From TrEMBL:
GO molecular function, one term: metal ion binding
Gene3D superfamilies: Zn peptidases
Protein name from the UniProt record: Succinylglutamate desuccinylase/Aspartoacylase catalytic domain-containing protein
Keyword Metal-binding: yes
Keyword tags: Hydrolase, Metal-binding, Zinc
Span of domain Succinylglutamate desuccinylase/Aspartoacylase catalytic: 47-235
Alphabetical list of InterPro entries matching this protein: AstE_AspA_cat (IPR055438), N-alpha-Ac-DABA-like (IPR043795), N-alpha-Ac-DABA_deacetylase (IPR053138)
Matches recorded under Pfam families: AstE_AspA_cat
Coiled-coil boundaries: none
Needed co-factor(s): Zn(2+)
Length: 334
């Protein structure tokens, strides 16, 4: 495969703090010979693990990018051991637009891995992450939030690695993050995510879901900054004294495809349960109302298993097939 077209003045081997850009040549109607300047930073001090910290995979998820910007400005390079590589707005066109997918090519970055150096802008950026940044890293943190379409409980996330030793190290790292909820998931088997690509390269991969509905959540910001710092302490990149008291966390999983409820028709979805509620298999989850046909009875959607309501669709309007609820169950090893 070809080398990445992305060029940068950042030197990943240099000691101290650098802030700069990963420049992707880009030639739209308005700018024949320009670049997409993806902001990035490197903080290095001696030997130690390399942690890649990414936000803006989806451009409408804000807690991760805000916290990564803070850490770039606030961390004293002399206090760290190892290397931190920050890319707080990785899919910059999507971040500038406040949009889940990139306006440059209409692509959801988290369905483009491992990317393509000769592909569209989003695929070219994914390829750089996969082929240049992942090989430098031991641990990858990809900070997501609910984005425009989801309302959820702040949580740290992991996919389940097949390798038992990597699974243990990943579990230890997500438990160190110490979010209110720790969720093991498989994204309905999706293999084109950043997390799946990083797992394939043997990295410890930590994800998050922090805010809701495309807004900035104060609770999400607190969970995010405390969690990222907790993981850096856990890895020995920051000194050994954890800054905050441990909070109770629940270790949960998205158990399978039957954990999801999808809208059964086009219309307006009316949810029946608050987030955090325990619900039973077969119980109504909500109903689709037909506002332009008030004589028509609403169509009820049911839970297909019992569980704890983790996530709901944020906008009221739905099309048949939209995800409207996601359930969690206690984590089971194996
Ligand atoms: Zn996301």
């Amino acid at each position: 495969m070809s080398a990445s077209p992305i060029f940068t003045d950042l030197d990943y081997e240099r000691e101290g703090r650098q802030v700069g850009f990963l420049n992707l040549p880009y030639s739209p109607h308005s700018d024949a010979w320009g670049v997409i300047p993806v902001p990035a930073a490197v903080i290095r001090n001696g030997d130690g693990p390399t942690v890649l910290l990414m936000g803006g995979n989806h451009g409408d998820e804000y807690e991760g990018p805000i916290v990564l910007g803070r850490l770039i400005r606030d961390l004293d390079p002399r206090t760290i051991r190892g290397r931190l590589i920050f890319v707080p707005a990785i899919n910059l066109p999507a971040v500038r637009a406040g949009n889940r997918v990139s306006p440059a090519d209409g692509k959801n970055m988290n369905r483009t891995f491992p990317g393509d150096p000769l592909g569209s802008p989003t695929e070219q950026i994914s390829h750089y992450v996969d082929s240049v940044l992942f090989p430098l890293a031991d641990v990858f943190m990809d900070l997501h939030s609910g984005g425009s379409s989801l309302d959820l409980i702040p949580s740290v996330m992991m996919q389940r690695p097949d390798d038992a030793a990597l699974r243990r190290r990943t579990l230890d790292a997500v438990l160190a993050f110490n979010a209110p909820l720790t969720v093991v998931m498989d994204t309905m088997g999706e293999r084109r995510t950043s997390s799946a690509a990083a797992l394939a390269r043997g990295l410890v991969v930590i994800g998050s879901e922090l805010g809701s509905a495309g807004a900035v959540s104060l609770e999400g910001l607190e969970v995010c900054e405390r969690g990222v710092r907790n993981v850096l302490h856990h890895l020995g990149v920051l000194p050994a004294d954890p800054p905050a008291e441990r909070q109770p966390t629940q270790l949960m999983q998205i158990a399978g495809a039957d954990s999801y409820v999808f809208a059964p028709a086009d219309g307006l979805f009316e949810p029946f349960h608050r987030l955090g509620t325990w619900v039973e298999k077969g119980q109504p989850a909500g109903q689709v109302n037909f506002l332009d046909d008030p004589g028509r009875p609403p169509l009820v959607a049911h839970f297909r298993r019992s569980g704890y309501l983790f996530c709901r669709r944020a906008p009221g309007r739905v099309e048949r097939g939209n995800g409207v609820c996601v359930l969690l169950n206690p984590y089971e090893e194996g």
